[in-house]
Amino acid sequence: MSIYLDNAATTAVCPEAAQAALDAMTVQYANPGSPHAMGRAAAALVERGRAQVAAALDCRPEELFFTSCGTEGDNWALRRGAEYNARHGKHILSSRVEHPAVLRTLEELEARQGFALTLLKPEKDGSVSPEAVLEALREDTCLVSLMCVNNETGAVTDIAAIARAVRARCPHALIHTDAVQAFLHVPLSARSLGADLITLSGHKVHAPKGIGALYIRKGLNLPALLTGGGQEGGRRSGTPAVELIAAFGAAAEAGARSFAEDSTRMAALRAHMAGRLEAENPGLLLLGGGAPQLLSLSLPGWRSEVLMNFLEARDICVARSSACKRGGRSQVLSAMGLPGEVIDGVLRVSLSRYTTREEADAFCDAIREARGRIRASLSVQNRK
Does residue 239 share a domain with residue 286? Predict the structure, then answer.
């Protein structure tokens, strides 16, 4: 059986979410926009899912709008947020370590709509400091977008502190955070975070792929990204994916219920792995960190592709960097100032509440074995 350590890419659907989706597909399968009894029952499932996710995020249900994924949520927040707030200026502040859904969207806003874009350099751990944000703020800053937990390194940016600083210096600016890797992994409350817009994704928290949400602060009349039939209060048209919404709600409720236990256990498991890896592999580097579910490591001078092939032959699944990035060196790790030989040897290990100590130890054993076998193989080749 495979050992799955790529949960930052996607997670297994939990039993609660799977059952909720099955019920919605086979029992309450009507269109929630239909006026008959079955339609009303399906609509009630949508609102139940909204209330469950909102409770896990600590926001009002009416502040939460369902999307198809984190990328859609980021696009909606950035495109419409920038356009909506352009009356205050056309400067956008973000960082070099954002998800491609953010960076590519901001680059398009700059190229096609004339927004000025400032991308901050991260700290050594991959986070962005409030001081750097304050220094880069301008009178015409209309939007600040910073990731809460980095999807490659697990570095945690203090969004609450940044929001307080931005409000004091530039109160008209909108604040967006991609919290896809933060939701149900680190403490996260919309009420205390201070962000106007928060992006979530279901498949990172044991819901199926194809469902996400965007938190829009009450009172912010963010225009719709998709227009049509006026679903989601006119904010996001399209027939709601009832089964996915029900599953997201069930997963969020289950994750919130066990959050303290899960995060503590994952943090302990991460610390155990980090300790073993450093002790058993001289020269191994741990990169970034902070979030309990993410462990980014590098064996400088080794190729991550070679290590991944070795691990896959032993049914161990890990990643090189983000699953949303194809080819080339990681922009995140390059922005952190890491040399090429370190970046080329990076592996991203990501845990979930289902990851076991035995699986973690199997990975550590395999890395130790890989170094020995690959080094021996290289030595033989060099003597030929």
Answer: no
Q: Give the β-pairing of 141-145 and 91-95.
A: parallel
Which CATH number covers residue 62? 3.40.640.10
Catalytic residue chosen out of the listed positions 142, 148, 170, 324? 324
Q: Strand, coil or helix: what is 130? A: helix
Q: Which amino acid is at 134?
A: L
Q: What confidence score (pLDDT) does residue 133 get?
A: 98
- Host H or E run for residue 17: helix 15-26
DSSP 3-state of 360? helix
Q: What is the pLDDT of residues 62-82, one digit of tens each?
A: 999 999 999 999 999 999 999
Q: How much is the average pLDDT of 195-206?
A: 98
Mapping DSSP to helix (H, G, I), strand (E, B) and coil, where does residue 283 land? coil
Chain position carrying tokens 């009002």: 60
pLDDT, tens digit (0-9, with 9 covering 90-100), for 184-194: 999 999 999 99
The yes-or-no answer on residue 59 being catalytic is no
- CATH number of the domain that 358 lies in? 3.90.1150.10
